[in-house]
Each structure stands twice: as C-alpha cells, then as structure tokens.
Give the backbone structure.
Amino acid sequence: MSTEQGYVGRVLGDRDEIILTLLDNMIWPILALVILGVLIFVPQALRNLEAIRLILWASVPIGLLVLAESLCLLSGHFDLSIGSIAGFSSMFTGMVLGTCPSCWSISTNPWLGFGLILATGATIGLVNGIMIAKVGLNPFLQTLAFLIIFEGAKTAIQTQPVTGLPQLYVSVGATPNFAIGVLLFAFLLFGLVLRFTSFGQSVYALGSSEKSAREVGIDTERLIIAVYTISGILAAIAGLMLTGFVGVVPPLIGEGLVFQAFAGAVIGGISLFGGRGKVTGALGGVVLIQIIQSALNNSSAVSATQIQMVNGFVLLVAILLYSTQAKLRARILASGAV
C-alpha cells in the first residue's frame, strides 16, 4: 500500500512540476496562438521577412524599456519613469546636437551625443535609486514624480521635432540589423548576468525579501541604487534607438511607453512582487506586444484613434493572466506536492 502511495505521490509531483514549468513559460504558447491568429485575420502584418524584420526593428525601443522594467520588478521595485527618461534624455541630447532653428546647436559631435544621452539617463536613474534607497521614498511616488517632472521638462525644452542630428548618431537606431542586434545582445547579457553572477543572485534575493537579503550580507541600498541606475541607462538607450527609428526627436517621444513596458514584462512572466521571472520570457513579451501593435496598425477593423484603447485592454489582459498564474502557482505550492 505504501509503495502505491509513493508511486501516486511521485506522479502527482511530476504533474505539478510540469504545470509550474508551463506557468513559468506561459508566454511562448500565448505568442504562438497570437501569431496564428494574426496569420489568419491580419496576414499582411506578417506577409514576408521584411515585415517581420520591421516588427523586430520597431520592438527595439520598447524591448529595452521592458528589460529596464523587468530588472526593477525582479528586485521587488518598479519604475514608472522609464518612458519619460527615454524621452527627456533624447530631447535634451537632441537640443545639444541638432541644427534646427530652435535647437541649442552646441556641438555636432555624435560621440558627445552618445556619452551625453547615457549620462543623462544614468543620472536620473541614480537619483531615483538614491531617493528610494537612502531617503526611503515609495518607488511608486518617486518614479511617478519623475515621470511628471521629466515629461514636463521635455515639453518645456522643445515643442517641435528636433532635426539636423549627426548622421552617425541617428544611424545607430536607423540601421535595422544593428538595432535588433543591440536588443538581442542586451537581453542575452542580462540573462547571463542575472543567472550566473552574484549581482543577479542578489537581485533575485532582494526581490524575494529585502529583509532576508540584508540579513545574509547584501548591501540592499547600494543594490537598489545600481538597479535604478542601470534602468535609467537602458531607458536612455531606448530613447537613442527611438530617435534613430523615427529619424528626428519628436515632441511626444517616450510618452505612454511605460504601460507597454509593464505589459511586456508581466506577460513575459516577471513577477509584480519581485524575485521571480526570466528575461527570456520578457523578450517573448516584447515580441508579443509588437506583433499585436503591428496587427492593429494593419487591421481595417481598428482605427488609429482606437489603438490606444486596445493597448489598454492588452495591459488589462496581461494583469489578469498574471493574477491567474499567481493563483494557480500558490494553489499548487500550497498542496505540498512540490
């Protein structure tokens, strides 16, 4: 009898392990279903390799923002300001480099532009981290304040497209294969760092329990500052790539992207409460979001004025999927089978 019970227990345990694995990798079957649906109802969105490359190219800026948000979420925090950091960094640097009539036109050196946009994003992220880790501000309130401040600052600087940017500065994001390569390299790099380095293990530990992480010797304040600084740098690179994709710095650059970043990260399996998730799943979330966006743009059933509303529903579905996943995981773990 005990042998039969042991066998049944192993079978149930294996089944629950399979279910947990499927829950952790939920993005891939969802992505496959969405691709199938697009091929059936909006086939022109994936009509050839060039269309697929365009989707991947357009996903580069939002992909970098998803990566930034994923890093913050894994650490048990989040960043509402990544879109405004991308926008302000791009606009500020564009005003320095641009030759438009209202630009500052301080320099036309593209290397100065690369350094300036990264330094701007890093500085804003650093301040975010210091205010949260050292001053003790709530991440929601701090990053919401910076979202408002830097979107307002961007508008105060310029209300017209910034043009006349150096060719090399623009070409980084304007070259599809290079931009896609940057995105894939960034995800590969952070995937390896989070999995195989002490920094990555510390990020997961911080996200699981800040108190426990502190008790095992992790400098949580320094780690939080580092996470937000890296997030700011990734947001700045996203702004650079978006500038190259568009060819100019539009006045609304970066606005509304934080919600797509959240949706991509959550659909990709990153926990809203920290300590669980993989950046590979987040990459799947990026592709999913962009395929949906491309399908909406190519669909005659959805007008341009309705796309933002549909994006809101996508975010809602992402939250519902996350909630369902969390409940199923908790139920399985509570059963004691795993």
Notes: Residues 256 and 296 are 17 Å apart (CA to CA). The radius of gyration is 21 Å. DSSP finds 14 helices and no strands in the chain.
